[in-house]
Amino acid sequence: MNTRGTAPKQDRSRATRQRLLESAVTCLAEHGWSGSTVTVVAEHAGVSRGAAQHHFPTREDLFTAAVEYVAEERSRVLREAVRPGRSAYEAVETLVGLYTGPLFRAALHLWVAASNEPQLGPRVTALEARIGRETHRMAVELLGADERKPGVRETVQGLLDMARGLGLANLLTDDSARRARVVAQWARLVEAALAE
Amino acid sequence: MNTRGTAPKQDRSRATRQRLLESAVTCLAEHGWSGSTVTVVAEHAGVSRGAAQHHFPTREDLFTAAVEYVAEERSRVLREAVRPGRSAYEAVETLVGLYTGPLFRAALHLWVAASNEPQLGPRVTALEARIGRETHRMAVELLGADERKPGVRETVQGLLDMARGLGLANLLTDDSARRARVVAQWARLVEAALAE
């Protein structure tokens, strides 16, 4: 008699996959690419190496899926942030917040690894392009920006580049005090530029 | 009879050191931290491993010196760029230029490695703080900014964060066309903000 129904089995499989992805992000953020093998991630997730390979046959599969997972988490954060009546400061703070914390840290390790790993490069590049477009679209919405006006598109792009740079500045030291001052000033400048 | 005078010997030693530093930067930019051992760098420089270790006893010594060398090269580029009569666009373009190309690429690999390597972390962090202060000082000069005015300091800092973010965006793909448009628009924003 089969006591394991299909639905619970699928649930377990999904939970294992989810645990592996979360562990991949944690390991990347903490140990970088070279320290994050499938074995290390499986161990962190409390999953056998065989079960991990059932879900993700190669290391590249695992980490590309992990970046996709990071991207979806970031989209979720952004979608929740899009609410009417937000100030420019809150919008800029939310956008900058996407580039600090372990999700960005994990993505950063993967980008840098992808620049030297031929097997990783094209997948991470394609994913990055998609994430970039989506982040831009949501930033426009969050800021209430009208991209038909000349310069507005580049104002928003530059703001996201600044957010990425602030994320990088936060990699080695806690940069939060300086970052808050930069966010306050540039929220003011971007608000004025968008109202022009 | 000693045909090798002291001065030429010192010159040779200095030339070897210089070659090792240049090779360290090239190897870092091309192969990342994990692919850049002292042996790889010595081979690239055409120097024996022993000679390399005479100059730099540890891998950390070699790469910290390499980042210092990168920092000095970047300072040199900046100092040469500070000339009267430059437009805001030229100033912003010069600053952004510091964060693209192999020098930034090498520094980026080292930052990311330093975030996971306890032996590298404190040295790279201290060096980064020095480079950050120096870059800021020269950016203020280049832009003709008056930091006594409120907000000006943060305007310049945000611009340098944007430049860093643009450098990161250029890691996986050639981002130069988009970058030129963002630089044009942000030069306009920064110029207006500094004139306020």
UniProtKB/TrEMBL annotation, chains A, B:
Statement: the UniProt record of this protein carries the keyword Membrane: no
UniProt cross-references to PROSITE patterns, sorted A to Z: HTH_TETR_2
DNA-binding positions: 37-56
One Pfam family of this protein, by short name?
Answer: TetR_N
Q: Which UniProt keywords apply?
A: DNA-binding
Which SUPFAM superfamilies does the annotation name? Homeodomain-like (SSF46689)
Q: Which residues form the HTH tetR-type domain?
A: 14-74
Query: What is the protein's given name?
Result: TetR/AcrR family transcriptional regulator
Name its species. Streptomyces albiaxialis
